[in-house]
């Protein structure tokens, strides 16, 4: 394992710290990121039962400001962004003209800055950040709004798990109890100015802290110190994937892609046809919605293995000797103790408990139980 990142990879502000902690690094969307620090299972279980600390600085932050920022975002994205209140966030998508999903996003309305001007932050997936930026810039033509690439302006640290509110409360006087799910507020954490958000991608309660890159190391160290007594551990991308899989959360490039519309992905609810004005993809998405009514697309379901063999993305789902679907994500589940997968399957085989469903793993049809997503839901 090399002690420095290859020159062609981007590094986060926490890169040296990850290496000092002995992280196994991996290339992810052009970034050198920690895959794991020790045991993936231990990291996963820490987030489920205690707390985990993640470096998510590879995510793509794009700022949209101006008198017509809300109108632009309503045109560029499928959701009704104009209806998002200050201090709140919304899960949405950006689609192509043909309705294909370019990315799924979280949009924060950070402030109204007077004279009718609004300040939004769009957070894109690392692998799609440039695509989303380019699309927003292109779609901003004719609107009184500015689109700014702020990927280098932020480091992003997440603390996730049942102990995370206590850990964060010990470092901030911000009103965390009043901070709802899918909201964000400015505050100071361990003396560092931060946007404190509460969205999460693990199925657990938790917080995301957007800070200046030069403050990332001191914040990480303060969180590490504050979490010592409750079992907080640093966590890599590997357990982030098993956590989101158990929580039934889609990952772009697996459950979402340009070949699927939100209706194909079972996420048609994010498309708001009732909002004012036109938006990119409206016509194609209306057709997709109508098509889904009369001819249901494949349904995203959960699969739990009866045996021990792990299904991987791209493996065929079979029933009665026929291919009825395809695995999009698969991994051993530390929480369930068995391999699990998400898969798109024909509607006729999508009901939980449907008999005779299996996954073709290298020519062997392994039996799987069809279940409703998510696999795991935390006790509130």
Describe it for me?
By secondary structure, the protein is α+β, with helices and mostly antiparallel strands. The chain has helices at 15-20, 40-49, 69-76, 129-139, 164-169, 216-227, 237-246, 282-294; strands at residues 10-11, 24-28, 31-36, 51-55, 60-66, 89-95, 101-114, 117-124, 146-149, 155-160, 184-189, 192-197, 206-211, 232-234, 299-305, 316-319, 322-333, 338-345, 357-361, 364-371. The protein has a six-stranded mixed β-sheet, with helices on both faces. Strands 15-18-17-16-19-20 form a six-stranded antiparallel barrel. A five-stranded antiparallel β-sheet has the order 6-7-8-5-9, with helices on one face. Helix 2 packs across helix 7 (237-246). The chain is globular and about 60 Å long. It starts with 9 loop residues before the first strand and ends in a 9-residue tail after the last strand. The model has no long low-confidence stretch (mean pLDDT 96).
List the helices and strands and how they pair.
Blueprint: E1 10-11, H1 15-20, E2 24-28, E3 31-36, H2 40-49, E4 51-55, E5 60-66, H3 69-76, E6 89-95, E7 101-114, E8 117-124, H4 129-139, E9 146-149, E10 155-160, H5 164-169, E11 184-189, E12 192-197, E13 206-211, H6 216-227, E14 232-234, H7 237-246, H8 282-294, E15 299-305, E16 316-319, E17 322-333, E18 338-345, E19 357-361, E20 364-371
Parallel strand pairs: 1-3, 4-14
Antiparallel strand pairs: 2-3, 4-10, 5-8, 5-9, 6-7, 7-8, 10-13, 11-12, 12-13, 15-18, 15-20, 16-17, 16-19, 17-18, 19-20
Helix pairs in contact: 2-7
What is the molecular shape? globular
Helix/sheet category: alpha+beta
Number of helices: 8
The SSE order reads: EHEEHEEHEEEHEEHEEEHEHHEEEEEE
Q: Give the helix level as a range of percent.
A: 10-25%
User: Taking strands numbered 1, 2, ... along the chain, how are they ordered across the largest sheet?
Assistant: 11-12-13-10-4-14
Rg from C-alpha positions?
A: 21 Å
- Please count the beta strands (DSSP E, at least 2 residues each): 20
DSSP strand (E) fraction? 25-35%
Q: Largest beta sheet, briefly? A: 6 strands, mixed
